[in-house]
Amino acid sequence: MKELPEPSRRGPRVWKLTAIHVVIIIAFFGLLLGAYLASRNTNKARPLSNALSNGTSVFAPTTILISLDGFRADFLHRNITPSLNAFVQAGVSPEFLNPSFPSITFPNHMTLVTGLYPESHGVVGNSFWDPHLKEDFFYTDPARSMQPKWWNADPIWVTAEEQNVRAAIHMWPGSEAHIGDIEPTYVDKYKGHELLGNKVDRILGLLDLPGPLDKDAKPESPRPQLIAAYVPDVDRDGHLYGPNGTEIRSTISSVDSMLGELFSGLEQRNLTDIVNIVIVSDHGMATTSTSRLVQLDDIIDMSLIERSDGWPLYGLRPKNDSDIEPLYNHLKQEAAAMEGFDVYLKDRDMPERYHFSRNDRIAPLWVIPRTGWAIVVKEEFNVKEAKKTGQVYHPRGVHGYDHEHPLMRAIFVARGPAFPHTPGSKVEPFQNIEVYNLVCDSVGIVPKPNNGTLRLPLKPIGLHDSMPPTEIPEDMPEDVPEDVSSTSIESSETIPSAAASSTTVTQVAASSTPASRPAIATTEAAAPSRPVIHDDVSPEDEDKDGKDTNLWWDWVKGKLDGAKEWATGLYDTVSDKISNTAASPSEGSD
Ligand SMILES: *[C@@H]1O[C@H](CO)[C@@H](O)[C@H](O)[C@H]1NC(C)=O
Ligand SMILES: *[C@@H]1O[C@H](CO)[C@@H](O)[C@H](O)[C@H]1NC(C)=O
Ligand SMILES: *[C@@H]1O[C@H](CO)[C@@H](O)[C@H](O)[C@H]1NC(C)=O
Ligand SMILES: *[C@@H]1O[C@H](CO)[C@@H](O)[C@H](O)[C@H]1NC(C)=O
Ligand SMILES: *[C@@H]1O[C@H](CO)[C@@H](O)[C@H](O)[C@H]1NC(C)=O
């Protein structure tokens, strides 16, 4: 009997306690849920503040940033870029964008996405020595270059992700380097030979992901607000064939068609006035020539040099610091006596406008070629020999020079709701340190401290139509027939026979290649960084990215496959020269 009331008596008490606990727990979870929803709302609310609808989907401020590597500003005036020219007429742009010094790919791609001079973001070259890490950076070796330690500033995808703006980065240099331990929501592994059509599909596919207010929105695959994509083609063929060659014309027009596809893809989605597009390039390109080479090892004793950084510039680090001053004085004298290069001490007379001194990764002594010139050591190219045999210097096009030289000029063209100007507006030229702020503004994120000063909205000075380009720079002269082909055709037996059949050409190239490409093994300590490099490129990378992917890199790496392609280039050159004189039909198409 006693047993029964007990549980019944205890029952209500236990129930009451349980109820209280349950209420507390529910309240607790309610609070948690509320906090979660609130935080989610603020995350969403900010970017959505300037949202626009294309009729069926709401878009938070969205910007596509595309970099066309090596697209020189005046390529727009060759009548082969209808899509880009129409884009200029629809958007806002300066006549050209100045790169930063040195005008090469990795430093400038980092500047474009940080707003910092290379001395401040730390990627001071495509290859350089870090005296603190005691290691070499080299850009075609991802195993090394894609370690975060090299990348000392936060790029725009980090800025965006930190502010809850999702970023998708397609092959932008550095995007696989885990910078700041923050990954873009989407990051595409670098492939040198990605079809241009695939790049367009990728970008449009990202826009087609459900937006934040769409019913089928998925948190694990959000639609990105920042899409940055990299297009290597024009740079690659500019190196291979030269910026004034006929071959590069088809590359330029295929990149233009790619942009045309992108623009019409946006139009089909009713996104032309909703999504911003910013098209930039990183630098221009200048024609090289065997008559514009500086044989560095004829000028200084290379055995005094521990390492040289930065190609086509030469940043010299002597073995003994006490050699810096004498080497500088000697080079300075030679520079005054001959054409083609300037010499600077990083900490003394490096031009202020280069902003190229405040970093230990910058070598103490610099030999900087004048635009269109190249500096070579004999193991890669013997100038005297080449002039005798009529050998043509490769690469046919080079950049890296004074970033304010007209042939180094890049482009910036923008269109979309963040650029609400009269179509075809023109702004004053500016430097690419400004691009980061502008793109941040276009998606509504707060930029980190940087060297840019421009902000949106841009301030047009007029219309392109009423203000034609002030000047279209003339390229440097190429190796001209009377210098090379006439002498070589008359004096050399191999070259005419090479032109007769392509089989022979391969042989010619095979025999001339060892002399012209960087030697494979470097025994001299004084070797420039170029030949040393390819030894470190793993065969794995080569299989993935090398082969026919990137002839320029192959050439740099001294790969035989590349050499074969190089031979084709030589063949083209030779047959060019012959068709010039004999009007041969072999070189009809471009
Ligand atoms: C296209 O977008 C505009 C806003 O930019 C909107 O007014 C228009 O209705 C849309 N058109 C269609 C067909 O949805
Ligand atoms: C709006 O954009 C979405 C995503 O790209 C697309 O699927 C949709 O068809 C577009 N709406 C219109 C009216 O074009
Ligand atoms: C560097 O050069 C100076 C002057 O020629 C010499 O006294 C010194 O021993 C050298 N140092 C080394 C490490 O070779
Ligand atoms: C560039 O910006 C960085 C970061 O704000 C700053 O540290 C550096 O001093 C600036 N450089 C110049 C030349 O103003
Ligand atoms: C560049 O090419 C054009 C046409 O292909 C030619 O007329 C011009 O002379 C070339 N310029 C130089 C500097 O070689």
From TrEMBL:
Biased composition (Acidic residues): 472-482
Biased composition (Low complexity): 485-516
GO molecular function: nucleoside triphosphate diphosphatase activity; ribonucleoside triphosphate phosphatase activity
TM region(s), chain numbering: 20-38
Gene3D superfamilies linked to this entry: 3.30.1360.180, Alkaline Phosphatase, subunit A (3.40.720.10)
Region feature Disordered, mapped onto this chain: 461-549
Protein name, as recorded: Phosphodiest-domain-containing protein
